[in-house]
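Final report, closing paragraph on structural work. Over the funding period we assembled a curated collection of sequence-structure pairs, and we close with a single example.
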Amino acid sequence: MSKESYYTWHLSLRVDRPVEGCALQSHAYMYGKKIDDRDLDAKSKSGHNKICKEAPPPHEFSYRWFRGPEIEFCAYEDCPRRKSFSPHDWSMHALGGSGCSLQCVSTQSSLFKSTFCNSDCFVKAWKTQYTVKDAPQSKYNAATPLHKRRSTSDDEDTGSINSIGGNSNGSSSFNGTLGSNLSSNSNTINASEGTPKPFQRSTSYNDYGASQYQYHDDGQQVEEWVEVSRDQMYIPTQDDVGRKLKLEAGSYSNETGELLMHRVIKTDLVLSRAPDPAKRNLVTAKTSGPRGGERFRVVTYNILAEIYATLQQYPYCDFWALSWDYRFQNILREVLDACPDVICMQEVQADHYETHVYNALSEAGFEGVYKQKTRASMGLAGKVDGCALFWRRSKFHLVESYSIEFNELAQRQATQVLGMNPRSEEGMAYLNRLSKDNVAQLVVLELAQPSMSSRSNRDPINQVCIANTHLYSNKDFPDVKLWQSWQLLQELETFVMSRGQNLPLMICGDFNSTPDTAVYDLLSRQAVHPGHPDVNMNNGDDSTPNILPDAMSINHSFQLGSVYHTVMGEEPKSTNYTELFKGVLDYMWYSASNLRPLSCAPVPDEAALTKHGEALPSTQYSSDHIMLLSDMQIMGGSRPPS
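Its predicted structure, as stored:
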């Protein structure tokens, strides 16, 4: 005789840490697991599932968001978090990395049942406590505080509607009858009033914006929850700051409209938006030269794509501070606060360019172009990063726009220049070494209000060429980075020379190369030394194909200067500051014959970078890179500034 099969239904519900102004997305997922009758008793004891004879039918979700009451989150009077809900004060770094709140369980202490945000506040408050006589007995050890693990959501209730072998005590706040009334002695809402479908209207008790109360056994009201939304996504407002949110989600059968399961969770407290980015003062260049033409401001910024912003990579950063919505708000404010005319961005995720970056910068007065990396997305559409280049509409008009794919250049170099068969062993090794999917962008911008000829500037230049790139990141492939830099310069030479030698050029981006590399030598000195280690990668090892030509052939004709080295006298100490690496990877290069840097914003020192975190990213700096900024001026002559 065959055993009868059953299904356990599960409703997963999760939300991230809520922060003012950041979209809070509910993640609801209902699924079924097949079991046999031998597992029936064990599975039925769980309050987080439902047992049925069929798999879950097609369904849809409905949501309700509630704002909670004001709660004292730390009983220590001098705790900064009693008055501040800034993300900086509620990060792991600020809390000492504990991630736990504590509650005093000593019944003989004046602090009994008091809650503290971390162990430090508990220890400080304990010094002020006193003994209470005739206190009730506690089952806890009086010397040990109760730890509560801090999480982004607390599971309050899971419903099991009409479950086989389920609890019979009515633990669910919903019942199976959609039209039933609120029980007179119930502390929660029933099915029709818990999570109504969008097209269903409930009784006056459940009108939108109504409050929900909880009571002690003596009938005293202790909490109030105000409904604030019925959308899947909610954006916390200033009114939510310092309070918790509660999310109720119910799954309904598409066919019958029957409530299948529901779940209720509470979030952690809502934090205020991060403070405005710290002002970065400009340092003026000491060099002088003939009076030039138009001025413009450029920034370059690797903004850290979401697909790379993981806890595995950045374990010292709070999970909620790594979320794209939180980081984007900070990054956008930082960029706009700099008041740039040209913005070069790297690691811009394709889907976020469409949904966030372009729209926000367009509203701020910018136009832009995007080029994603050559590779396919990581599992889902849009999950691949690339480069984005923007310009202020009131300052510039777009004349030309091109993109460069280094994979395509490698294919052309192998077949047309070196005469390789791409299917041969040699050709495949060459292309495998070079095909890393990196890209570059190239635009020619023209001043919206061109400079007129004058006695001091008889032949004004009204156009500028901007290149934006992100080179290969792997530190074990310096030859690939050198080849990419060389090919980029070759392409730019062909492009600029065909449009006249006096077209100003800036090359910005993340070059993933420190100042001691051959990439830096090539850009700054027009050539590389034949003895440089990056040029001699194989050293007789046949396993690494030689992708570089003779060192004497790796050159270019541009007279390039590094903005930061020119203005500051040296490169910054770091433009990438993580736990595992601290150094300079990002640069702003300019053609010294017709451009000069007037100023730049120094990179914050180590004390500033680590004020709110061990490294980047943190609650303050939302990328692992630091934005570079410079004021540039177009020169009318053909000589470099003195």
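Residues 297 and 340 are 5 Å apart (CA to CA). The first strand starts at residue 5 and ends at 14. We thank the funder for supporting this effort.
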